Backbone:
């Protein structure tokens, strides 16, 4: 590393979105390379509301690779981190920063150490795809630091080796992870089906039922399912290939009824496969089931789907409304059925795009308490029957764009002089 000796620090900060699968990935054909047994399709969520920010830095003064997640130092010794670091370093190019007078030859990257700081603006390991955003951001930011020539689709094949669904966070909008057929995984990568502007009237509301870490990790859950479920092979071979084609058509044509039916049925089948695992895996809970019931009653009463729901490996509900007007009606129903505790500040109960509260005609807790039962609810629910406090908070968001480099140095998570967390 040529330049002002030992002290010079080069840094890149990037922001990467999370994604929610509407055709689920569950089960691997190769555990090490993270190769799936079926294709999957996801919607990228607006990074203004759900994202990982990562700063990566390099300096001759660093004596080892180090990483901090949400302010706490974590080990980089895990196989998945090592796979990503190895693959990126192997593709590193010459880097020159004329302003700092720094020149790094590509062969030097193998000897130089990195400092990495990462921050999720949403709960980690609670079934909101934090590992997807995290590993995608790690790969994307390192690729920029080391001047890689690979495009985002090729980078997705590296991110996939850190966390399967991370490959889908390398793009915005609607993304397909192609399972691939090659043993080495070279053709198992993400492709963008449509960008976030293609279907921008969709509004997404996430009910965070629990921000706790889940009991069964996705990694061990998948392994157990593949080994013990009789349904999983039928799902992967017979059901998902047809659904993927239908979902691609629904997205292309902005056909919401088909999109909703496919998203809901695929989510339900994924959880059925978890139940068919031995011992069974329970990711959803009673609150998750009540949310499904609330959406299904409304969809049935309207005669056509107003809202799609989907659940990943956790109890949190992701609801996709066909447009903003529907989203306001959905929020009214959710607040009627799942009001916050009386002493809760509404501002912290609805986060993200708060303007939907205004559309729903809700300014404060008095408005929540005055909500009338939705027309599809036959009997007025007494306040004691309502699921008060069962939802921690709601996030209002929308489909969003892919990873970006943040050029504003004040957004860096590492100190430019020491390379340690700010």
Residues:
């Amino acid at each position: 590393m040529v330049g002002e000796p030992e002290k010079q620090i080069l840094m890149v900060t990037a922001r990467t979105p999370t994604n929610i699968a509407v055709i689920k990935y569950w089960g691997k054909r190769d555990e090490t390379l993270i190769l799936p047994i079926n294709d999957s399709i996801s919607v990228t969520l607006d990074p203004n509301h759900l994202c990982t920010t990562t700063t990566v830095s390099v300096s001759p003064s660093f004596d080892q690779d180090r990483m901090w997640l949400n302010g706490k130092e974590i080990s980089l010794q895990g196989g998945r981190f090592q796979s990503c670091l190895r693959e990126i370093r192997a593709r590193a190019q010459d880097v020159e920063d004329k302003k700092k007078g720094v020149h790094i030859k590509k062969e030097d990257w193998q000897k130089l150490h990195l400092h990495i700081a990462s921050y999720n603006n949403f709960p980690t390991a609670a079934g909101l795809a934090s590992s997807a955003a995290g590993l995608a951001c790690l790969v994307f930011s390192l690729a920029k630091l080391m001047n890689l020539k690979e495009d985002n689709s090729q980078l997705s094949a590296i991110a996939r080796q850190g966390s399967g669904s991370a490959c889908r966070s390398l793009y915005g909008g609607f993304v397909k992870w192609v399972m691939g057929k090659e043993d080495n995984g070279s053709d198992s990568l993400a492709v963008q089906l449509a960008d976030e502007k293609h279907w921008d009237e969709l509004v997404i509301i996430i009910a965070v039922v629990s921000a706790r870490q889940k009991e069964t990790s996705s990694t061990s859950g998948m392994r157990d399912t593949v080994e013990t479920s009789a349904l999983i092979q039928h799902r992967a071979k017979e059901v998902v290939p047809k659904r993927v084609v239908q979902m691609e058509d629904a997205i292309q044509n902005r056909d919401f009824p088909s999109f909703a039916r496919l998203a809901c049925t695929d989510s339900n089948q994924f959880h059925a496969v978890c139940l068919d695992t031995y011992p069974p895996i329970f990711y959803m809970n009673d609150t998750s089931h009540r949310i499904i019931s609330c959406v299904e009653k409304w969809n049935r009463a309207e005669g056509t789907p107003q809202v799609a729901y989907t659940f990943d490996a956790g109890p949190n509900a992701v609801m996709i409304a066909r447009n903003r007007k529907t989203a306001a009606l959905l929020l009214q129903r959710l607040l009627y059925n799942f009001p916050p505790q009386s002493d809760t500040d509404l501002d912290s109960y609805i986060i993200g795009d708060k303007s939907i509260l205004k559309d729903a005609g809700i300014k404060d807790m008095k408005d929540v308490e005055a909500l009338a039962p939705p027309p599809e609810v036959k009997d007025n629910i007494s306040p004691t029957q309502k699921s008060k406090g069962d939802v921690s908070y709601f996030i209002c968001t929308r489909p969003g764009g892919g990873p970006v480099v943040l050029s504003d140095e004040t957004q860096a998570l590492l100190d430019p002089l020491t390379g340690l967390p700010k």
